[in-house]
Design a protein that fits this description.
- This protein is mainly alpha-helical.
- It has one domain: ABC transporter involved in vitamin B12 uptake, BtuC, CATH 1.10.3470.
- Helix content is 76%, strand content 1%.
- α2 packs across α13.
- It starts with a helix and ends with a helix.
Amino acid sequence: MNVLREYLGRNVRQYGIVAALLVIVLLFQVLTNGRLLAPNNIAALIQQNAYVMILAIGMVAVIVAGHIDLSVGSVVAFIGGLVAIMMHDWGWSVPTAILAGIAVGALVGVWQGFWVAHIGIPAFIVTLAGMLIFRGLAIVLVGQTVAPLPEAFNRIGNGSLPNVLGFIGNIDVVTLVIGAVAIVGRVVSQIRSRRNLVRHELTVEATGAFIAKLVVMTALIALVTYWLSLSRGGTPIVLLVVGVLVLLFSFLMNRTVFGRHIYAVGGNRNAAILSGVDSRRTDFMIFVNIGVLAAIAAITTTSRAGAGVAAAGQNFELDAIAACFIGGTAVSGGVGRISGAMIGALIMGVLNMGLSILAVDAAWQQAIKGLVLLLAVALDIVSRRRGALA
């Protein structure tokens, strides 16, 4: 019992975030008379909020390392407009334009990482300047809407995976297979992680709690899979993109030297430097990383809109930062998980969709999201204060 209490004490914030998401979903499901969880709305929720999830993946690393990036929304507009011009005006193929856009995102990261890591200018100032620079470049590049774009490109943000396995009644079999793979992968990874903790004689939760957690997560994945399988197109293409990125960057953050360096620098920069961590290289690569992810977010956003627009990406940086903080990333750095940021992004997305279905005025939507962010950060600070006193 003591072991379980200790484990829950260390993970109460993680469980609290999941519980908050479930409560918000149930609340809006009741208020919207069941429309929130309609299969087509579930697919739309993922497609509309893919940009938040993608940007939040990179923003977690930035915040964990003790920085902030205010430029990602402007970078999305700049690269999205540039990719649209490549295809519409220059006649480039879709794959070539996508690869070029990602390369430009990496160069943007190199530019900003240089000023932060090697010149020593605070990231807040560098990315604030970047927000102005890249928004200005977006306006110069995209003087008017760039459209139409190739249908193959537009399908990235709006389309679904081809139904190559047919249907069982109205259920898309491809979606069922993907859901089954996700469930098996989740269970296997959790069992392996638990065995590693036991092998190193570290604290683990009680077996009953572990099984209950697996059952709940399996049930949630199965429910989402079932709803998506009943939607108009099945599994959205952007869900596959987000899933691959989550797996890749979760491995990067948790299983590599670079990831450990990010947490070390964010937890105590001076101690990390004394331990041999190259903080400059770590900071530099963090911004290259989020530059690439901003480019991917630009591609998904532009493809969903079907056009390059200079005004794209407005407040995207605030949505990504909010998702991270709501998902448990510490304001002071050193603590944060990609999985938590994804839950934070879903909370933001459910709020957006639920309030839209209820026809709540856009101004009130902004106010409510701001209040949720404030409460999430306040909860984080209060819980850490109590932990320090304990």
